[in-house]
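Subject: complex prediction, re-run

Hi both,

The earlier run crashed halfway through, so I resubmitted it with identical inputs.
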Amino acid sequence: MTDKVLVIGAGGQIGTELLEKLNELHGSSNVIAADLNNSPAFANNAFEKLDVLDKEGLFNVVKKHQINQIYLLAALLSATAEKNPLFAWKLNMDGLFNVLDLAKEKIIDKVYWPSSIAVFGPTTPKENTPQYTVMEPSTVYGISKQAGERWCEYYFNKYNVDVRSIRYPGLIGWKSAPGGGTTDYAVHIFHEALSKGSYECFLSEHTHLPMMYMPDAIKATVDIMHAPADQIKIRSSYNLAGISFDPAEIAQEIKKHIPGFTISYNIDFRQQIADSWPKSIDDSESQQHWGWRSAYDLSAMTGDMLLNLRKIK
Ligand code: NAD
Ligand code: AKB
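This time it finished cleanly. Structure:
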């Protein structure tokens, strides 16, 4: 059977790039883009205007296109969620339930739902944070991701729902804008390095965080979704590691390409969120179970970001 894939939240930072990859893998006629609004990124795909909180609307879209797989990307990210905690909890949890229930009722057969390094909290070991460790998230975003992970595992155990998940680090790409996270500075810095030659950072210079270049994140996403089911031994969510750096280090790397680039610091509420997260991640289980390897280090990512942004600016 040909897979028919629905991407919910397709117009966001990840969806924009994931759609391109899914089009390559499945053919664009088999990939449906759903979001609150249409976007130029959907030029090659059928578009459905859909609020994931509308359970009946979601069911109708799934039936109309005979969807069998859903990638659920609609969520409020860490910084935006802190401004509207109750709505963040509603969107991040009810959206997930609406999709998991379609799989529980065997209307669809596979679900991808991303978690985040935000599931960890201030009491988690900061360096090489293991898959299994203390998890006491202090943000509403992290609480919703941790609860989501528990529900994914529950639906797998109780209802045999084939749900797969990754705890993404902060993602960096040149094709799309970030959507309200704490790690967004690591995208903004490239745009402003090129447009202004300087960047004012909202995190302090030694805020070390786990990050990843988008091509690695997209590869991990399709790899875990296409791995044989028996290789996916963790049904909550997998740790995933790419690069770890702080604002001073990425600024230094950018200076190698733009010698006059300067960075300054004007710290805001996102510092507290960042301080609660790990500095680096141990992703041994992803490597062992489904063969994950990242390809980009800080230098390769910086070169590729600047090369591509220069072409489109
Ligand atoms: P984003 O904010 O860039 O995109 C989210 C998309 O969902 C937007 O296009 C938005 O319009 C859409 N959306 C919002 N509410 C909706 C609703 N009710 N119904 C339908 N669509 C709705 O987010 P992203 O960065 O692409 O992240 C996608 C997922 O990956 C989220 O679950 C996020 O928590 C997770 N994640 C992202 C990162 C990252 O660095 N980008 C890191 C860890 C986890
Ligand atoms: C955010 O900063 O909220 C996201 C994430 C790490 O989940 N980029």
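The pocket of nicotinamide-adenine-dinucleotide (ligand 1) is lined by residues 8-9, 11-15, 35-36, 50-53, 73-75, 77, 91, 114, 116, 168, 170-171, 178-181, 183 (CB under 6 Å).

- K.
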